[in-house]
Amino acid sequence: MTRRDCRLARAVITGIGLVTPIGSDLSDVWQGLLEGRSGIRRISAFDTSGSPCQIGGEIADFRPDEFVPPKEARRMSRASQMALVAAHKAVADASLPLPLADPERVAVCIGTAVGGIERVDEGIRTARIDGLAKTNPFLLASTLPNMPAFHITKELGAHGPNRTVTTACATGTQSVGEGAESIFQGIADVVIAGGVDAVLTDFVLIGFAAM
User: Fold this and answer.
1) What pairs with residue 41 in β-bridges?
2) Could you say which DSSP state residue 20 is in?
3) Which of 14, 183, 151 is nearest to 85 (CA)?
4) How far apart are CA 146 and CA 157, in angstroms?
5) What CA–CA distance (Å, rounded) separates 158 from 17?
6) Which of 34, 24, 37, 4 is closest to 66 using CA atoms?
7) Secondary structure of residue 163 in the 3-state scheme
8) What is the pLDDT of residues 96-148, one digit of tens each?
9) Residue 1: per-residue pLDDT
10) 109 Cβ contact partners less than 8 Å away, ≥ 6 residues apart
11) Nearest to 201 by CA among 90, 85, 121
């Protein structure tokens, strides 16, 4: 099939999965958007007294247990956990069968600005204070930007093209666009696409305030 022929293909959104400050259930989030409900509130996860900004989009009640076993969750960054939960919800919403019928035709394209940045902070503190014995052996791997896409691929058995987009605040939108392009080019029939970040930490807040 030529590229021109592939352009005749349509790319449609068949399922949506969300983990957001205004909810993680699709109908609740949609209703919240219609009502103009805000997910921005005073941060409770850490002390914000040293920052002129003390609010953020906190997901205080996030629990990955429904889809991610506790042992596995300890090896993953928060961003990877949220991406995997959202992917499971999207697959269910799309009524995709698991195991996938044709896994080599299912692609994954997940964007993230910084990946598991909180694991970097945790790892540096642990390594410098407690040394090698207390350092998590999964530390470095869990910080990588491509890990959310990897965990989705591994968990769902999607063996098609695997991509990670890292373009700051545009990364989620670009990932969806790249996913559609995979369908237009004829290299995938289904794409699990989206964006994730879990950057609400004290040093990120201070960094943006300084900026």
Assistant:
1) 56
2) B
3) 151
4) 16
5) 17
6) 24
7) strand
8) 999 999 999 999 999 999 999 999 999 999 999 999 999 989 999 999 999 99
9) 35
10) 149, 161, 162, 163, 164, 165, 175, 176, 178, 179, 182, 191, 192, 193
11) 121
pTM exceeds 0.85, yes or no: yes
Report CA Rg, the chain. Answer: 18
Question: Three-state SS for 11?
Answer: coil
Token pair for 114: 């910084």
Phi, psi dihedrals of residue 195, rounded to the nearest 5°: -140, 155
The CB density around residue 15, as the number of other CB atoms within 10 Å, is 16
Q: Supply 150's token pair.
A: 């990897």
Tell me the C-alpha to C-alpha distance, in Å, between residue 177 and each of 87, 98, 109, 148. Answer: 17, 25, 9, 18
Q: How far is CA 66 from CA 69, 84, 124, 153, in A?
A: 8, 11, 30, 18
What's the average model confidence in pLDDT over 8-27? 92
Residue 4 pLDDT > 70: no
Identify the three-state secondary structure at position 128: helix
